[in-house]
C-alpha cells in the first residue's frame, strides 16, 4: 500500500428507502446530498473515530454506526494489525429519513475496503454496513445501505440469506425530498407498525412492488407512478409527519409520478420524470410548509447510479 492510498475522502450519499411499496426491501441513491468522510489506515491497531463535525454523535467506536460497521468488516478480514481512523463530516441530519446512519455505515466500510485493496465486493459490504443500522435502529435493514453502496435503485430480495440486487435506473427520474426539521427516530417510527397484515393488503402491496420493478426496467413511467402506493405502512406512519397529505396532494398536482414517506420519515419524497417537474414539485411543497412555521430543507436530486465515490 502506497502512502497515497493510506487515506481517502469519500462522499457517502443520502438515500430514500421503501419507495412506498417496498418496506425494508427497496431503496434508491441520491446525488446532491450526502456526508463526507476521511478514512485512514494506520499502523496502530484498532478503530478510532477522531473527528465528527455537523452532528452531536458519539466518538466511542462501539456507539458509532461507522465504527461498528468497520469493526464487522475487520473481523471478517481477520488481520488484527490493521488500524483505522475515521473523520465524519455530517451533512445529512440524524433522524431525517434519508439514510443518515446508512451513509456513515456504508461510507466507512466502502472506504476501508478500498484502502485494503477491495478484498470484499460491494455486495458483501452490505452485510457489514447493516451492523451500523442494527446499532442505530435495533434492526439490521439494508434498504438504505444497499443503494448507498451499489448506487441507483436496489432490491433486497432476501435477508436470510442476504441477496441484494441492483435494479435498472431510468435516466429521467428525479427525486424531490422535503425534510421537516423535526426528528422521527427510526426506532419510534417502527413502533407504530402492525406486526400482522391482512392477506388482501399483502397481495395489494406485492403487486405494487412487482409493478415498480417492472416499470423501472421498461421505463414505463405511468406504471412506476401507479406502483408508488403503500397500503400497509404509510397509513400508520403518516400521522407522525405534519402536513403529509397536503404535501402529497401538492406534489401530485404538479405532475409527480408518486409521493410517499422517505424511510421512517419525517422526510417526504416525490419522484418525477424530469428535472423541470421535480423543481415545480419543490416549489409547490415549499408553499405548503411555509404556512406551518416549521423549518425545513428541500433537496432536488437526480438518481446517483454510482453510490459512494472518492472525492480526494
Structure report:
The protein has ten helices and eleven strands. It is α+β, with helices and mostly antiparallel strands and 312 residues long. Strands 1, 2, 3, 4, 5, 6 and 11 form a seven-stranded mixed β-sheet that branches. A four-stranded antiparallel β-sheet has the order 8-9-7-10, with helices on both faces. Strand 5 and strand 6 (162-166) form a beta hairpin. Helix 9 runs antiparallel to helix 10 (275-290). The longest helix has 20 residues, at 199-218. The chain is globular, with a radius of gyration of 19 Å.
> How would you classify the helix and strand content by structural class?
alpha+beta
State the helix count: 10
Q: What's the shape?
A: globular
- The beta-strand count equals 11
List the uncertain runs. Answer: none
Biggest beta-sheet profile:
7 strands, mixed
**Elements, N to C (H/E):** EEEHEHHHEEEHHHHHEEHEE
The overall average pLDDT, rounded, is 94
Strand content: 25-35%
Rg from alpha-carbon coordinates: 19 Å
| Helix percentage range | 25-40%
Q: Give the distance, in angstroms, between the N- and C-terminal Cα atoms.
A: 17 Å
In short:
With 312 residues, the protein is α+β, with helices and mostly antiparallel strands. It has 10 helices and 11 strands.
Amino acid at each position: 500500500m502506497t502512502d497515497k492510498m493510506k487515506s481517502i475522502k469519500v462522499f457517502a450519499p443520502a438515500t430514500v428507502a421503501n419507495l412506498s411499496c417496498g418496506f425494508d426491501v427497496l431503496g434508491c441513491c441520491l446525488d446532491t446530498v450526502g456526508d463526507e468522510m476521511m478514512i485512514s489506515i494506520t499502523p496502530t491497531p484498532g478503530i478510532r473515530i477522531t473527528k465528527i463535525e455537523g452532528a452531536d454523535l458519539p466518538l466511542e467506536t462501539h456507539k458509532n454506526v461507522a465504527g461498528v460497521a468497520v469493526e464487522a468488516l475487520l473481523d471478517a478480514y481477520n488481520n488484527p494489525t490493521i488500524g483505522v481512523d475515521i473523520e465524519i463530516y455530517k451533512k445529512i441530519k440524524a433522524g431525517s429519513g434519508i439514510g443518515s446512519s446508512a451513509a456513515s455505515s456504508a461510507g466507512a466500510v466502502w472506504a476501508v475496503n478500498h484502502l485494503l485493496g477491495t478484498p470484499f465486493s460491494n455486495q458483501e459490504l452490505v452485510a457489514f454496513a447493516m451492523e451500523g443500522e442494527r446499532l442505530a435502529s435495533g434492526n439490521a435493514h439494508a434498504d438504505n445501505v444497499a443503494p448507498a453502496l451499489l448506487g441507483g435503485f436496489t432490491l433486497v430480495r432476501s435477508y436470510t440469506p442476504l441477496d441484494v440486487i441492483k435494479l435498472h435506473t431510468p435516466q429521467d427520474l428525479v427525486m424531490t425530498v422535503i425534510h421537516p426539521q423535526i426528528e422521527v427516530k427510526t426506532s419510534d417510527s417502527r413502533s407504530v407498525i402492525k406486526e400482522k397484515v391482512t392477506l388482501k393488503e399483502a397481495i395489494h402491496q406485492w403487486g405494487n412492488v412487482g409493478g415498480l420493478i417492472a416499470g423501472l426496467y421498461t421505463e414505463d413511467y405511468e406504471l412506476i407512478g401507479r406502483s408508488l402506493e403503500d397500503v400497509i405502512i404509510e397509513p400508520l406512519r403518516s400521522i407522525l409527519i405534519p402536513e403529509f397529505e397536503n404535501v402529497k396532494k401538492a406534489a401530485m398536482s404538479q405532475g409527480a409520478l408518486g409521493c410517499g414517506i422517505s424511510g421512517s420519515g419525517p422526510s417526504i419524497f416525490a419522484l418525477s420524470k424530469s428535472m423541470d417537474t421535480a423543481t415545480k414539485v419543490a416549489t409547490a411543497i415549499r408553499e405548503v410548509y411555509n404556512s406551518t412555521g416549521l423549518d425545513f430543507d428541500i433537496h432536488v436530486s437526480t438518481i446517483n447510479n454510482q453510490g459512494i465515490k472518492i472525492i480526494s
